[in-house]
Amino acid sequence: MNRRNVLKQSALSVAALAAGGNIFNSLPSNEESKSLKNNINHSVCQWTYNHISLEALCLLVKNIGFSAIDLIGPKDWPVLKKYGIDSSMCNGAEIGLTKGWNDTQYHGQLIKNYTDHIDLVAAAGYKNLICFSGNREGKDDETGMNTCVTGLKKIMGHAEKKGVIIQMELFNSKVDHKDYMCDKSAWGVELCKKLDSPNFKLLYDIYHMQINEGDIIRTIQRDHVYFGHYHTAGVPGRHEIDESQELYYPAIMKAIVATGYKGYVAQEFITTAKGDKQKEKALQKAIKICDV
């Protein structure tokens, strides 16, 4: 196809969109939304919907048609079990986002915390437990990685025995998490290779990696074996994943499905909607956008 034909086709596409709207403006009603395709296992991060109680969030996700909530610790698991909701990414073992496995001064506490939490996660019938690299604090990437390997190796045998997957989240260090070490997928992939455990994966946060490096679909296609979980949000601003931002999530979801991935994709956007009903609709809309 030459440049003239490309331009002609583009003009036709623009005209079609103007006449008929787009995918984001023709999403199903609430009644239709309950029939999901089950190619993606949907979840939502609790902290982004903490304007309502956890019980209310459980009811909301069931009403939309999925059954998982991300970033829930042991004290709240009884609420999830009451409503038949999976804790798709467990937390509570970490010291914090900035104090992580790349610093030996935290290893003692982290090893104890994670050993205990691995037992709790396994006993509850859950699978995923989040962790963080911590900030650089002047350390170079190689030193930080080797320190992570030294500490994490002391819990990985236990995680493997209990069937729990430790997942380190990738953050951007440009906007939200200045100085965070695990801010590039290549660094995280190398850490996975050094640990060489089927129970250590990366939480690939699409929002964060779009900010730090872009090339989302190619990265998923190339490195998906190292990704055990996904988070979404719109760029810029971490808001809705609709036409107001720069990523096209249906294509990203199709790329994830094509890899054979069977884990969870959790919505982690902060809605700009006002009022509880509109916020509920924002989550419903995001689920439908990702339900490819």
Written description of the protein model:
Strands 3-2-1-8-7-6-5-4 form an eight-stranded parallel β-sheet. It has helices at 3-20, 30-33, 54-64, 77-82, 107-124, 141-162, 185-195, 206-212, 216-223, 249-258, 276-290; strands spanning 41-45, 68-72, 86-90, 128-131, 165-169, 200-205, 227-232, 264-267. Helices cover 45% and strands 14% of the residues. It starts with a helix and ends with a helix. The protein is of the alpha/beta class and 292 residues long. It contains eleven helices and eight strands. Helix 5 runs parallel beside helix 6 (141-162), helix 6 (141-162) packs across helix 7 and helix 9 packs parallel to helix 10 (249-258). It has one domain: Divalent-metal-dependent TIM barrel enzymes (TIM Barrel).
